[in-house]
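task queued by scheduler; priority normal; single chain, no ligands, no partner chains; default sampling; output format set to structure tokens
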Amino acid sequence: MLLDQYRIGPYLNFTYLVAEDEGGEGVVIDPSFGIDPVLEAIDARRVKVRYILNTHSHADHVAGNRDVRERTGAKVLAHRVAPLHQDVSVDDGDSFAAGRLRFGVVHTPGHTKDSVLYVFEGNVATGDTLFVGECGRTDLPGGDPSEMYDSLQRRLVALDDALVVLPGHDYGPTPTSTIGREKRENYTLTPRTREEFLRFMQE
């Protein structure tokens, strides 16, 4: 499998190019500002991009959608409530494929109403739900700390510890992690009651 991580744009965003192999079918996850290096890699590696996967609808995660779509003909895929153009709408528990690659969808509202994780081939693209050592903000429009509690403490911690975490920003000490490591080291995943978590997020 081909899996390239690009740190692009002014906000330390990570955009991912994923494919079966060079010349194979694949996806682009969260195309951000400054998408040119990813477009160049798509051409150089001859990737047939079938989908553009958006983990949520914030501008820094969708800014490159149009450019990738125009270059490749890929379909934009996002959660059904995401306020953006969607060719394919998904919800919690859905799955889809790009060639031999299989993807599962986990709905994780909290940062935004439309936040999702994409689980594929031993990896999980977490967008702004989970960073290495941190979690996403809940004080922006559409954010909800109570929903984030459920997303982190119920959905995310239930994932396989071996999954490689592919975050939406380069905010941590390393560019990737694992679910197991984050459960051990990420202070936002410390077991708490809902009330404790809400107080923690307010602080």
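post-processing summary
- The chain has six helices and 14 strands.
- Residues 2-202 form a domain with the Metallo-beta-lactamase; Chain A fold (CATH 3.60.15.10).
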